[in-house]
Predict the structure.
Amino acid sequence: METRPGDYPILSLPVGEMKHEYDVVVVGSGYGAGVAASRMARAGKGVAVLEVGREWRGLGGGSLINAGVFLEATPEVIQMSAWPAEIREDPDAMAEYYARASTMLQPTPYPETDLPAKTKHLEDTGQQFGKAGSFSRVPLTTFFERGRNASGVSMCANQRSGRESTGLDDGSKNSIPVTYLVDAWVWGAEIFCGCEVRYLERDGSSYIVHFVCHEKSGRIGEQQLSVRAKEFCFLGAGALGTTEILLRSKKHGYNSTKDINGVAGSNRPGPTITSMIDLREVNNPLEGYIIEDGCIPEPIAPVLQILLILQTILNFKFLSLLCSPLQQIRRVRAVLKSLLLGPLVPGGAMQRTATYLIMSHDSNEITMTMRNDEPRLEAVGERRGANIRRIKYTLRAIVRGTSASMVSCYSDQVSAHLLGGATMSRNGTGSEGVTNHLGQVFMGHGAEVHAGLVCCDASVIPMSLGVNPLATITALAERSVALLGKKRCLEFDLETKNGEINADSRPRVSHSTGKEGKHRDGDYVSTGWEFTEALEGYIAVPASASGVDCHIAEREGRISSSLLRIILTVEIYRRVQGATEPRYKGICTGTVSCRALSRLPMRAISGELDFFVPDEQGTDSTTLSYTLPLRNVEGTELTLTGLKTIDLSSALSIPRLWKATTTVEVHVTDARGERIGAGVVRIPGMSSLYRQMRTFHQTKKPAHISMLVVFLLYFMFQLIVVFFHPLISRFWDRAHPRTQEKERSHGRDSGKQRPSAIHEIVTSDNVKVKLDVYNAAKTDSQQPPILFLPGITGLNPAHSIFTLPFQRCNMVEYFASRGHRCYVLTPRWGLDERVAGECTVFDSRLDIAAALEYIGRASENSKPYIVAHCQGSVALSMALLTGTIKADQILGITANSVFMNQVFAYWNAIKASSPLLIRAYELLDGPYFPIDFSTRTKSVSQRILDFLLSLYPVPRRDRCSSPACHRTSFAFGLLWNHRNLDRRIHDNIDRFFTGTSTKSLEHITRMDSAGSCLDNNLNSLLTIENLENLRGVPILFISGSENEVFSPETTLKDYELLRRAFGEGMYRRFLVDGYGHLDPIVGKNAERDVYWRVKGHVECCLQNEHTRTNEPNDLEFRTEGEHCTLNYSNQPGKDMNGVSNGTSC
């Protein structure tokens, strides 16, 4: 492991910050790759470097573990026939580029002062060769004095540890990360570690680089990503790595490669290699070689010691003991000393062992092939045994002169550095090699090349060099990049210096588009922890453009086998500003795989996961929301949004809580925001969740375990609050009272239309009621006025149910914008406390009559249309039945939930079966049941009642923690399906419901017992004579299919009764699927689902005002008690109770 100087910047970026495309993509980070990255960055190109290893361990390639010997290949080698003509025929072809490499790597011989013992030994040995041998100290890319290198990085002096080949650097090694790569980083290159490139794909003039991300440990599954190289893709992954990539690319349909045709302690000893004996001055360049001194790294000395002892025992000869007994005794003593006291003890066998590295030529005998997507190396052919024997003979002569024994472990040859694999062609065509003289990959056997695909490492070298190859690899890369840049008219700025590079330095050039790193703002700080999540499911593509149900889409996707797989690594961020309560978010990177969306996995970059955000579209629910920007290989930009919704339906149910926390509803939209897919993905099972929990680990920044513990406790707390809500709801109010206070204090209703006028009108019994007027948006509109009649909502509510400011589009706003003048009545039960405590629904019929009289005077030429809800609708029916208002005063009616007949839903029917519940409450707290406590203090009895009402039986989906909601459910029944309310509406229930008098409640329960509307003396108003007063009034009945206040049978009975009495043309009934009692008025989507139907009925009434059918059907009346029942003759398909056997709509 390399230990860098402390004053050194971090070069790599998280893979999540990688852009979809770059001008240049460099694969690898060794000598050739470093050159390509540096020079292209200095040419102003956007560069990405992909390295399979980690920073500090792998970034820098072979430069991290070699000895740093900078030796140029001899001209005789370069001029051999294996090289391309452009190189071998030009004596100066490489000189300029060797010089460039030397300028960056700054090779320096070991200083003459204080030479290591092994250097002096090799110098003495070289004297045996006389003029035939040449001893010299080799140039090393190592600093022997403290200073800054050519790239501006501070370097330390070499500590003579001899560990350079193990990767442990003392800060003196001028490796690629501190030279070419840091230079590329300064000039804007982006470096990404943990990216194993698998294969390449040509796409027009660009190249798609497919890689697997190993940046994080403990991932769930393999994430295959891709990045596009628009102009150049440089392969610098080494002789093996580059060849493997090209071979695998061929397997994936890429036709640019072929099989390989080339070679592929106390007393510090000094650097690994310091000097050499040069024996290359021979007639045949292939017979020349050099002998370099070596050094056994300290960590492997014990292992090597055992191997050498075993070799000595195997080669021991008894006669040698008789011939030289003293020498053998000294050897045994040295061996025992090393065994007992360690390999580094002075005088031990290991300290008396010399190591030599021979740099020679071999026979180009290794072939790589791909089997089962894995590389296979095969050694075939002749081994040049005569050359090896000649080298061994020379070594024995050297050893014999020092009275030592030569030990050669095993007989196999070992290569310190493989060369070739994608060799340069000697004749400029693909028939003799893989690349041309510039490293461009041939398309076939001819001279045509992939202009932007360039090999720039040891893989292009067509033969063995006879010296350490780093200088030649670097020079060839310098040459390729320079000549390719000249072809493309690129200008390389090689003169500008970087200045001093320190730990706090920043790149001088940035190619950022401004879209990356958006999470790095002052509101969030990283916790230093991340985890990986895997989700699988099905998606339907294309899905309906709007209103698609994700679970239905999932079923469609399952039928068509449209699998969606998401693997995300989520770095956890903690919010520190801009919020009054703890909140976490995650920054997501990973892959989204779906063949219906893209033929290859799509990469998610800088996606966001918001943890436990209150669901503004729901009530008392919290969400984990995903937003993932995607881009497929076809270049299409998509956005995947996902939602985990956790609501109170999961309370006290482990299976439901598990389902909520592991299920994500997803939608996919294109760049225009149009929905192109929908579905559901899930964590597959408990085992997958267990693997996910094991993926928590630290990011590269220091992180304390406490940060993870706090996050996990926060996560568990949110789930516990939901699970145990029925038990702790009174102690933990999750209704967000601060939000309600904000509504009151800041007036979020300011954007809604306010009343144009407020009139106080007097009824015939001298009671004052309020009539709010909202003018039409169009002053010249000919649309009829509309009168809105609410149900019982209590004294002086802040808003009418028809004008809620926190509803996206309320009913008055809807009709006023369409040219209707709107009148909203506040009946007597909502103004004066004394009057409200004494009035009944029957009394309120006079309020409607007074309002119609006022509207009639204001709108002489137009009859008003009436929209009535609940008891407002009952009061309207009473006014018509008693003749208080006439049928010809009204254009038409929409009656929501109830009109004349009344059939309570199950729980309301139980409560209404006896007046004891009302009497008990009156005894406890008086004749008024409050819902809003903003102007009164909540007594102990009311707090106890709150707790009891939280246990009121409602369906699981409608569980909530709002005391106001519980109180409305107790007083009137469950008023809505909670899915149809958003958070703003639900959090402000006490702004449009304040309470009710027990006298009104008692009158309502009496009417339910009777089954129809009653006057104050409990006489039925639904008589034969009274019913005739409704003749000619068109009515639209609306009921929610899930109404828990009045059964949908209520409006069905009225609908059947009236159309049998007066004909079928005047009446319509609309059963709103999935809605309850009040949400057809105040629901978040009521505009889309309900209002249009009312508007259509208004238009229908205008068209048919003069063509109403007033002839009755054949009716036979019989009296039962105080109300009438209609028996129908000659009406097929109907039973005797006037209820349709079929479906009415």
Observations:
- The first helix runs from residue 31 to 42.
- Residues 735-1109 form a domain with the Rossmann fold fold (CATH 3.40.50.1820).
- Residues 254-267, 515-520, 733-748, 1109-1145 have pLDDT under 50 and may be disordered.
